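Run: sequence + thymidine-5'-diphosphate -> complex structure.
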Amino acid sequence: MTSGAFITFEGGEGAGKSTQIGRLADALRPARTVTVTREPGGTKRAEAIRAAVLGGLARPHGPFAEALLFSAARIDHLDRLIRPALAGGGVVLCDRFMDSTRAYQGAAGGLDPDTLAALERVVVGPTRPDLTLILDLDPAAGLARARARAGSGAPDRFEGETLAFHARLRAAFRAIAAAEPERCVLIDAAAEPDAVEAAVRAAVAARLPVLAGPLAPDKERGDAA
Ligand code: TYD
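>> structure
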């Protein structure tokens, strides 16, 4: 059986993660079984928790309570969707994962690193991403994109935070990329979507050679005229 691959996408609001996940999934699908999923969410129970947390239910309880709820959602997501897909040799593309807890509840929310590390140990355990693509974008530009996308709807729990909060997030994601270069690749998300896609493909092909074949330009695959 081919080995599974777990790829997570991270970054601030409006960085274009979902567009890029869709494009990567399309590129890989002819060759591999691809599961596209997101956090918080991905399973029925986790989506219920998502609705509560992004609706602001846990906000008055502080970042630890929010981290516990994200963790509860993550446990179900890992058990019911991510681990079975990986065990079956699939490729899992996940929109946000443990680094969002580190950045949002930790660096920006103030939850201490020891608590976060303990949570990761018990919740994520050995199911760490094989590759994490961090889409890096100026927070003012990202929030403008996210708000344009939301139209007249109210911002969710985190979109409504201050620009300073979002600046801390960006710094946190960049620090994660610098601290774990073997797992993470920082991608410039201010570029045009085609250029971001090319950078995503290049990173995946370089870091996960098992996926390089389906991502090679047509002529290298030998199916050009
Ligand atoms: P979503 O609408 O998916 O945001 P985006 O389109 O920017 O990915 O909402 C997810 C929100 O939840 C986002 O603001 C980040 C936040 N979040 C955390 O605070 N902690 C976490 O562990 C996760 C997974 C997400």
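>> summary
The beta strands are 5-11, 34-38, 91-95, 131-136, 184-188. The pocket of thymidine-5'-diphosphate is lined by residues 13, 17, 38-40, 54, 70, 95-96, 100-101, 104-105, 158 (CB under 6 Å).
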